[in-house]
Amino acid sequence: MPRVSQHTTPPALPASPGRPWRRNLLAALLALLVLGGYYYVRHKVQVNRYARRAWATFTKNGLTGREKTPLLAGYSVHGIDVSAYQGKIDWPEVARNRVRFAFIKASEGGTLRDPRFARNWREARKAGVLCGAYHYFQPNRDGLTQANLFTKTVPLAPGDLPPVLDVEAANFHDVAVMRREVARWLRLVEAHYGVRPILYSNHSFYKRHLAGHFDSYPLWLAHYEVERPTMPRSKWIIWQHSDEAYVPGIRGVVDFNVFQGNFESLQALRIPAAPKP
Q: How far apart (Å, rounded) are the C-alpha atoms in residues 157 and 193?
């Protein structure tokens, strides 16, 4: 009989199957990285601005309320717009830093009243800041309901700046309906206070949805990260050039604006005194 070796080599084991989920995960991560890079390159100005604003909000407790953004050169009349987001504002300190006007959020949609409106309205006027109030328009609510909320909330009087309608929310299905309700709000509020309201919107929203439909109303234009608005100066009266400015008296970021004319021109926009009988 042949002799069998006690040291025979065991048969080779079959190769372990590959793990395709690892390759798929790596491919997915690579695709996300490429898409993220592409999106950042195309929208880096907006992404950087939102990142800075988020960081400012996150670190708000580390701010002192004395931080200061330089005033925009070439303009003599500077102002802010505020809401409950800014917290408790030291209005005398704000006024000491060349803020000549302020628009204060009063209401939003059909039911929301800004919880800090009454205090901001009272203290800003007491500090000598020229004041106006604004309503944030929600296109899913009718213009009548929203106009009634604003007029019941805001006690505009002679000497105050005109009311403002902030139109920028894009959650609508029919642009014609949205425009109709915006027009209704503007007509009703003008009839109530006896002064033509100011229309506020950002550059892209205005160009896409509002331009050509509300040209008879003064325009307050938001347009960031540009040296000047691309729209002609004849089209707007106020330019919101930053949404991440610092003004002493406010702990955190605030919107910064300039008026196109001098202070006398801004005063001419105020609600006039009622004629004497």
A: 8
Spatial separation of the C-alpha atoms in residues 273 and 154, rounded to whole Å? 17
244 counts as catalytic: no
In the set 81, 123, 160, 166, the catalytic residue is: 81
Q: Judge whether 96 and 74 are in contact, CB under 8 Å.
A: no
Q: Tell me: the pLDDT tens digits for 61-101?
A: 678 889 999 999 999 999 999 999 999 999 999 999 999 99
Q: What sign does the dihedral 252-255-258-263 (CA atoms) show? A: negative
Residue 168: active-site member? yes
Catalytic residue (one of 90, 93, 168, 244): 168
Query: How many residues are present in the chain?
Result: 277
Strand bridging mode 238-245 / 130-136: unpaired
Residue 67 has phi, psi (to 5 degrees) of: -65, 150
Strands 254-259 and 238-245: antiparallel
pLDDT digits (tens, 9 = 90+) for 104-137: 999 999 999 999 999 999 999 999 999 999 999 9
Cα–Cα nearest to 237, from 208, 197, 272: 197
Express each pLDDT in 169-188 by its tens digit.
999 899 999 999 999 999 99
